[in-house]
Amino acid sequence: MGSSKEIPRKRKRGQDDKQEGSDQALDNARAQATALRVADSDWWHDLVHRLSLLSKDLGLLGDDSNKFKSFFRVSRKTFDYICSLVRQDLVSRPPSGLINIEGRLLSVEKQVAIALRRLASGDAQVSVGEQFGVGQSTVSQVTWRFVESMEERGRHHLKWPDAQEMVTIKANFEQCHGLPNCCGAMDMTHVIMTLPSVESSSDWYDAEHNYSMVLQAIVDAEMRFRDILTGWPGSMSDARLLRSSGFFRLSESGQRLNGSSRQLPQMGEVREYIVADMGYPLLSWLITPFQDNDLSDAQINYNNRHSATAEIAEKALARLKGTWRILHKVMWRPDKHKLPRIILVCCLLHNIIIDRGDELLHGVPLPEYHDEGYEQQICQFVDAKGKELRNILTEYLSEK
Fold first, then answer.
1. How many CA atoms lie within 13 A of 287 on its CB side?
2. What is d(CA 23, CA 26) in angstroms, rounded to the nearest whole number?
3. Across-strand partners of 331?
4. What is the C-alpha to C-alpha distance for residues 264 and 267, in angstroms, rounded to an integer?
5. Exposed (0-12), middle (13-18) or buried (19+): which is 390, by Cβ within 10 Å?
6. Sign of the dihedral through C-alpha 189, 248, 206, 292
7. How wide is the angle at C-alpha 112 spanned by C-alphas 101 and 315, nearest 5°?
8. Residues with Cβ < 8 Å from 14, sequence gap 6 or more?
9. In CA terms, which of 4, 97, 114, 382 is 20 to 30 Å from 169?
10. In the structure, what pLDDT confidence band is assigned to residue 157 with cuts at 50, 70 and 90?
11. 186 in Cβ contact with 275 (< 8 Å)
12. Max mean pLDDT range (42-46, 113-117, 290-294)
């Protein structure tokens, strides 16, 4: 027998070429991203120059860092952090067709800048595009790519607190206005919009004769959003929206607000709860103010402290809509499936500013009230356990 001879394996040229092509494409994308960062590193100063040529008085305040903050609502440091969150998504999907007037592809930084400006100003896409030297379609595409990425990458900035965090939150609420074992303040606001006649319906037509979408929010003592619900029609009342929420179902089943109780000497036990205004039902875990006209001094004192605590949610929503003015202006025919995701991302950005220790620039105008033109709703529902808890709190606070 002749000796065996190893036969060389036939090279699969198609597979090798495909792998080499994939590696080359990845290398090109990385090189392109690096080149873009270098070529576009001075985009902010280019933008300021462009605005001056356009004679745009956009109310830019103070020195360079303050101008940046008044334009984008975040500091340069927070801006860089936001870029780090979305960079992988924006680089891994090359922005085909996203170019400025010089014909260069847009860097991640400029894409984020365009999206933040659109959300912060609420200006029309054409106007934002003019500021950055891009077209309306580019502003639309960039903003939506940013929203999709932030929705996933920034989600950890909006979550219900764990037991350790809740200890701090309850202490902060008590320090503010005296309410013991309080875990949050809740309120609701409307995002007003216009709709095409084919989509107009009574569901979206609210009590103040606007087409709107509602946002329900629960905040901590630092005005950080801890739970939100949106996407529902503006015709829904505060109480009905609450009962449609996952938070309601979790709280009713004992899976929320189920932490340690507070024992008040000679008064009773106070479970975890949140507060809200009189538009909501009085429940065992949701405490609302007294509505009677003939109130005792102790009840008046309770209502004052309750109102001051509930106002934290009002202020958070006013800050949200004043900072990200796309939610404060009337939105022109938005996609009702995309709008809830835009609202969520604005809430994430609101929280990121707080989490990063960023301060909203003084001089940025905020609305006095988040739901201007909307009357206070009234809900008469009273749960016996909620009534008992409110009485305990009233007695406790009367001695403070």
1. 30
2. 5
3. 193
4. 5
5. buried
6. negative
7. 130
8. none
9. 382
10. very high
11. yes
12. 113-117
Q: pTM to 2 decimals?
A: 0.86
Residue 11, token pair as written in the block: 């090279």
Indicate the SS3 state at residue 105.
Answer: strand
Indicate the residue type of 277: D
pLDDT(59) > 70: no
Coil, helix or strand at residue 163:
helix
pLDDT band at 98 (very low <50, low <70, confident <90, very high): low
With contact defined as beta carbons under 8 Å apart, do 361 and 223 qualify? no
**Per-residue confidence (pLDDT) for residue 62, from 0 to 100:** 58
Name the burial class of residue 191, with classes exposed (0-12), middle (13-18) and buried (19+) by CB atoms within 10 angstroms of its CB.
Answer: buried
Cα distances (Å, whole numbers) of residue 280 to 144, 173, 193, 277, 286: 34, 20, 25, 6, 8
**pLDDT, tens digit, for every residue of 327-381?**
998 888 888 889 999 999 999 999 999 999 998 766 666 777 788 888 999 999 9
For the chain, how big is the Rg over CA atoms in Å? Answer: 26
d(Cα 106, Cα 113) in Å, to the nearest integer?
10
Residue 314 amino acid letter = E
CA triplet 51, 53, 55: central angle to 5 degrees? Answer: 70
Question: Within 10 A of 195 (CB to CB), how many other CB atoms are there?
Answer: 17
Positive or negative torsion for Cα 283, 284, 289, 295: positive
Query: What is the reported pLDDT for 9?
Result: 44
Helices (H), the chain: 13-39, 43-53, 64-72, 76-92, 108-121, 125-132, 136-153, 163-177, 238-243, 246-252, 297-323, 339-355, 384-398
d(CA 205, CA 268): 45
DSSP readout, 255-282?
SSS-S--EEETTTEEE--EEE--TTS-B
CA-based diameter of the chain, in Å? 114
Nearest residue to 123 via CA among 42, 52, 190, 56: 56
- The residue among 117, 352, 66 whose CA lies nearest residue 223 is 352
